[in-house]
UniProtKB/TrEMBL annotation:
Pfam families: TetR_N (PF00440). This is HTH tetR-type domain-containing protein. InterPro entries: Homeodomain-like_sf (IPR009057), HTH-type_TetR-like_transc_reg (IPR050109), HTH_TetR (IPR001647). The lineage of its organism: Bacteria, Bacillati, Actinomycetota, Actinomycetes, Propionibacteriales. Transmembrane segments: none annotated. Residues 10-57 form the HTH tetR-type domain. It comes from the Bacteria. Keywords: DNA-binding. The keyword Mitochondrion does not apply.
Amino acid sequence: MPARSTRTDLLDTAERLIAEQGLAGVSVREVIRAAGQRNNGAVNYYFGSWHALLIELWSRRTTGDALGRELYAAAADAPDRLAALVEAYVRPFVSEVAERSPSYWARFNEQWLAGIRSDFVASPQPLVADDPAYPTIPGLDGLKQLLTDIANELDHLPVGDRPARAALAARFVVSALASWERDRVAGVWRDLDAFATELCTLMLALLRAGSADKRSSQVLRDASGSVG
């Protein structure tokens, strides 16, 4: 087995600590110490800055890229385009989680999304936080377009509600996979392939659910009709 590099140790340690404690709960010095480095300037030496380390954390995740491009392209001609787009979101993410054992990637994403506005698909700069602690991550245009395409397929919802529903569904998948990672550490995980299939089914059901406003109105009508 080839020797691990200091860069890899710092990246892996940062991902794990952020996954466990959140971005705001981790200091650069803590990452350096946990990675076994004595030089307090190790992050600056190897990456140039803390933000540059975070950007590289995102950019090194390429296992799902080819699969994502393939599934996204196939969705253009799929009989059920929304279902195909859901597969294009879930399957590459799962492939990244499967890449390492233990995996911290879903938990890292969960912590990252904690600092992003809830309706991030509708944001002028999706997946970019207002918090200066979050750097702008390059190379996410494909993911942004995928989530926008998913929102555009939700023609059963009012136009203004579609991006929020897509964002909610995406967060559901991230949190579910983060729970899978925690379960795996505890030794009670489910088969990841079967779990991925279930995630696709549930995400699709969430996206296709009717408008909350319409359901609330129906409940009120039913309640008023039963009085007297």
